[in-house]
Amino acid sequence: MAEFFVLETKRLIEEKITENIKTIQDQLPHVAGNDGIYDNTKPDWWTSGFWPGILWTLYDLTGNEHYKNTGEVCNKKIERYFMDNQEKFDHDTGFQFLLTSVFKYEITGDEESKRLGLQAGNFLAGRFNPKGNFIKSWDRAPGWVIVDCMMNLSLLFWASRISGDPRYKHIATLHADTFLKYGIREDGSTCHILSFDAESGDFIEAIGGQGFGPDSSWSRGNSWAIYGFANMYRFTGDEKYLDAAKKIAHQFIASLPDDFVPYWDHRVESVENEPRDSSAAAIASSGLLEIANHVTKNEQRLYRGNAMRILQSLSENYATWDNQNHQGILLEGTGHKPKGNFVNVSLIYGDYFFIEAIAKLNGWNRNIF
Fold first, then answer.
1. Fewer CB near the last or first residue (10 Å), C or N of the chain?
2. Helix (H, G, I), strand (E, B), or coil: what is residue 319?
3. Do the Cβ atoms of 297 and 344 come closer than 8 Å?
């Protein structure tokens, strides 16, 4: 049954993305609203890498050249913009360049892609604050650290592996240790934003950010942390990171409603009329599969089994398989609920991580993140 689900979902994904290539082409989408049409963002926007990431994943999985051809055009668009406008980029160069330049290099061995990936790694490493041992998120708030950045650390480990220079992974490890210390609560929930004094490096406070409040449990933030700390264990072999990933995963799983797709925050006062976040579900499912790679066989059932339940619910209850006019795959994504931005929409990163998780279940083991 599980094998049929994976193969059938892979087929539906290929049909959807092949059709989307005709209309999205080299655009860099973020969100698709009620009309089902994805927008087109600037190359410096944090989600710009996810559409080419989808294309490179499917090329790697299938070998079909039309995915590669469009992916290469998208890559060039982001790479050229980065060369001329680096001041417009921030900590999300991992999301942007792992899924483009690094992906192409890992598949094809293209030397120019390797050079650009290393340049992006240099840029990310340059945002490190040695007093507080963190990578700053945004220039407008040089003491702020957000949970999303746990996923960008993979770029630094890649840069260390490719260059032979351990400084990149040292920076990544120090940043992860800082978030481990201040960003994970005893119950396994996580903070979205940590505020530090950029001059002294001293911790100031946790800020609710995109969650319900300072002490809330923003579901997508938890999913970034599940996946990010599981990756840290893969890169370092340090059990404290695997323990953290499992702790956050247990809180996430325990907070899921009956259909295994979370509300946008696990701690809203009442779930009545509150939106779900299909993107958080998709990210968490891929992170749970990563945890399953590093635990005993008896433990694997917990993480892999819940990943399967999430993915099956997403495919059966939230996907647009019957609507080829809708470019997004997953409905009911929530971007920024407190600001009322991008609520009940399709989000390109939700689609990417859904596809990535299905690819993993199909035997794909590229480990771009």
1. N
2. strand
3. no
2-361 CATH choice from 1.10.3720.10, 3.40.50.150, 3.30.70.260, 1.50.10.10: 1.50.10.10
**What token pair was written down for 35?**
């009309």
If you search the block for the tokens 């990578």, which residue do you land on?
A: 135
Classify strands 193-196 and 144-146 as parallel, antiparallel or unpaired: antiparallel
Q: Which one of 90, 148, 277, 351 is the catalytic residue?
A: 148
Place of tokens 């032979």: 164
pLDDT per residue of the chain (369 residues) written in tens, 0 to 9: 789 999 999 999 999 999 999 999 999 999 999 999 999 999 999 999 999 999 999 999 999 999 999 999 999 999 999 999 999 999 999 999 999 999 999 999 999 999 999 999 999 999 999 999 999 999 999 999 999 999 999 999 999 999 999 999 999 999 999 999 999 999 999 999 999 999 999 999 999 999 998 888 999 999 999 999 999 999 999 999 999 999 999 999 999 999 999 999 999 999 999 999 999 999 999 999 999 999 999 999 999 999 999 999 999 999 999 998 999 999 999 999 999 999 999 999 999 999 999 999 999 999 999
Q: Quick check: 332 and 344 in contact, CB under 8 A?
A: yes
CB 146 within 8 A of CB 209: yes
Query: What ranges do the domains of the chain cover?
Result: 2-361
Rounded CA-CA distance 293/364 in Å is: 13
How many helices, marked H, and strands, marked E, lie in the chain? Answer: 13, 8
> Quick check: is 148 catalytic?
yes
Distance between CA atoms of residues 74 and 57, nearest Å? 14
CA 321 to CA 326: how far, in whole Å? 9
Long-range CB contacts (within 8 A, 24+) of 157-160: 157/235, 158/98, 158/102, 158/117, 158/121, 159/117, 159/118, 159/121, 159/122, 159/125
Residue 92 appears among annotated catalytic residues: yes
Which residue shows structure tokens 């579901």? 219
How many CA within 13 A on the CB side of residue 276? 22
What is the residue type of 103?
A: F
